[in-house]
């Protein structure tokens, strides 16, 4: 098992987490100062908490267990609490098993999905700042906010659909593929593939080759 531990939560970025997974990490643990006890005025630990919720939504969307990313809050003097949290996380990751393989995901498809999300990080940052940033004063309030129907709707429309379309178009750069082939590689249902391809076709990104019965990039 490989484990990446990230500290200085105000500096944590989604790109760091994705890079860890792309390099073979099985889990990412973020240790942060206690909420509402930030040493600076930025409240960076709330930023890190929001990041974790966003990352978990993305991981779940691409078929990974969201528990592979965890954040815990503690002061620098609470070494015992830090050890307890890390040991608990290590146990969770060992129980989950190797990244991707334990979830039964196709390795090629998983790498494509992760790389697509990594490429979209600047866009996701913008969406978070302009459309998804909420106001909350506790860990529980943040969890409730990101679990709300409105945030889930916006996240699906603005982020998850874009991730799915980006992954499929990346796959089609290699060769034209049928709906069934795309579905098998990426673990999507044929109906979802058709939905994303219809959207991509309207945007002028892909075309359907009637003779070969497959999709190709325009």
The global form is elongated
Q: What's the arrangement of strands in the largest beta sheet? A: 1-2-3
Q: What gyration radius follows from the Cα positions, in whole Å?
A: 19 Å
Residue share in helix: 55-70%
Mean pLDDT: 91
Helices and strands: which structural class? mainly alpha
Tell me the fraction of residues in β-strands, as a range: 5-15%
How many helix segments? 9
Tally of DSSP β-strands:
5
Question: What does the model show?
Answer:
- This protein has 218 residues and is mainly α.
- 56% of the residues lie in helices and 11% in strands.
- The chain is built from 9 helices and 5 strands.
- The protein has helices spanning 14-22, 44-61, 79-96, 107-119, 121-132, 139-146, 149-172, 179-186, 190-202; strands at residues 3-6, 27-32, 69-73, 206-209, 214-217.
- The strands form 2 sheets. A 3-stranded parallel β-sheet has the order 1-2-3, sandwiched between helices.
- Helix 5 packs antiparallel against helix 7.
- 30% of the residues are buried.
- The mean pLDDT is 91.
């Amino acid at each position: 098992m490989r484990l990446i531990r990230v500290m200085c939560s105000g500096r944590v970025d989604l790109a760091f987490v994705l890079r860890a997974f792309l390099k073979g990490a099985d889990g990412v643990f973020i240790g942060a100062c206690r909420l509402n006890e930030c040493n600076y005025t930025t409240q960076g630990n709330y930023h890190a908490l929001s990041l974790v919720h966003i990352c978990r939504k993305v991981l779940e969307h691409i078929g990974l267990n969201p528990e592979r990313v965890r954040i815990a809050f503690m002061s620098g003097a609470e070494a015992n609490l830090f050890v307890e949290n890390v040991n608990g996380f290590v146990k969770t990751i060992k129980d989950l098993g190797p990244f991707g393989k334990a979830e039964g995901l196709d390795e090629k498809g998983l790498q494509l999905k992760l790389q697509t999300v990594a490429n979209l990080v600047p866009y996701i940052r913008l969406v978070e700042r302009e459309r998804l940033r909420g106001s909350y004063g506790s860990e529980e309030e943040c969890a409730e906010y990101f679990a709300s129907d409105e945030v889930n709707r916006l996240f699906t429309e603005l982020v998850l659909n874009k991730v799915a379309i980006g992954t499929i178009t990346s796959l089609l750069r290699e060769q034209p593929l049928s709906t069934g082939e795309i579905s098998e590689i990426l673990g999507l249902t044929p109906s979802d593939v058709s939905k994303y391809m219809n959207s991509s076709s309207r945007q002028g990104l892909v075309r359907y080759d009637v003779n070969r019965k497959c999709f190709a990039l325009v």
